[in-house]
């Protein structure tokens, strides 16, 4: 297992520019690339159905009990409604997460998660800060809010089947993307990505990360996150998704360029 980094890390501007070559710049505004209108629209359905849950950090952030020293670990896949629910919670809690994608028929992390948990069930949480390992999305959300929040789980996560149904309806628009494995070459180190759950552009990039089973350290930067300025300092603008790939020394903005890069670099043709 890869050693996780401290919460909110990601390197200073000078460190980033020494290690990475920026292959695709961010313009600071959100524009849909040519031919991507339908993809972006369908990727945004979930945020619409969920009334923007995961777009903002909780307004109670200053009251939260503590910040984890290391990123929590989640075994999950993008097209799973229970997994989406936990990712929304992580955005509200401003938590960084090391994702080990577990798409259907994935040969690496799905079997590993099943061996660790004893069940073929997702999401599966491992918290290196406390040693806690957990299944069940509601239990994970309660744990995260008690450990790293204020103990008061927001209403959108306490509506029982209605929560899961609303997420599932939103995911239907993507036709199963982010669910099944595509053959790939695994990187030696996790790719780092900056984003937040409600962004349709970030979702498109995460679908490919999931399908290719690429581990990624996710720096959550929902609106009002105190980590947003850290990203702006790197290249002078804020835009997500943004990735840094320590395996190739590549840094990139723009979801369409990131998707092209991931497929060209890691997908087995």
UniProtKB/TrEMBL annotation:
Gene3D superfamilies: Glutaredoxin (3.40.30.10). The gene is g1272. Residues 70-152, 189-269 form the GST N-terminal domain. It comes from the Eukaryota. This is G1272 protein. Residues 1-20 are annotated as: Disordered. It holds the Pfam family GST_N_3. It comes from Coccomyxa viridis.
């Amino acid at each position: 297992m890869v050693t996780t980094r401290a919460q909110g890390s990601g390197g200073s501007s000078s460190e980033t520019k020494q290690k990475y070559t920026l292959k695709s710049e961010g313009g600071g505004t959100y524009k849909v690339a040519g031919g991507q209108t339908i993809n972006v629209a369908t990727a945004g359905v979930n945020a619409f159905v969920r009334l923007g849950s995961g777009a903002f950090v909780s307004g109670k952030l200053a009251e939260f009990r503590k910040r984890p020293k290391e990123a929590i670990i989640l075994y999950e896949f993008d097209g799973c409604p229970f997994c989406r629910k936990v990712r929304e919670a992580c955005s509200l809690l401003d938590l960084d997460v090391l994702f080990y994608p577990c798409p259907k028929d994935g040969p690496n992390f799905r079997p590993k998660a099943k061996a660790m948990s004893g069940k073929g069930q997702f999401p599966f949480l491992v918290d290196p800060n406390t040693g806690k390992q957990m299944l069940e999305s509601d239990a994970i959300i309660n744990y995260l809010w008690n450990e790293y929040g204020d103990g008061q789980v927001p209403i959108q996560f306490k509506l029982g089947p209605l929560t899961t149904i609303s997420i599932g309806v939103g995911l239907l628009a993507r036709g199963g993307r982010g669910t099944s494995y595509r053959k790939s070459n695994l990187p030696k180190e996790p790719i780092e990505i900056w984003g937040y759950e409600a962004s349709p552009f970030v979702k498109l990039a995460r679908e490919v990360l999931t399908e290719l089973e690429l581990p990624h350290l996710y720096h959550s930067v929902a609106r009002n996150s105190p980590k947003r300025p850290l990203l702006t300092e790197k290249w002078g603008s804020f835009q997500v998704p943004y990735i840094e790939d320590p395996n190739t020394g590549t840094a990139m903005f723009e979801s369409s360029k990131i998707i092209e890069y991931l497929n060209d670099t890691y997908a087995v043709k």
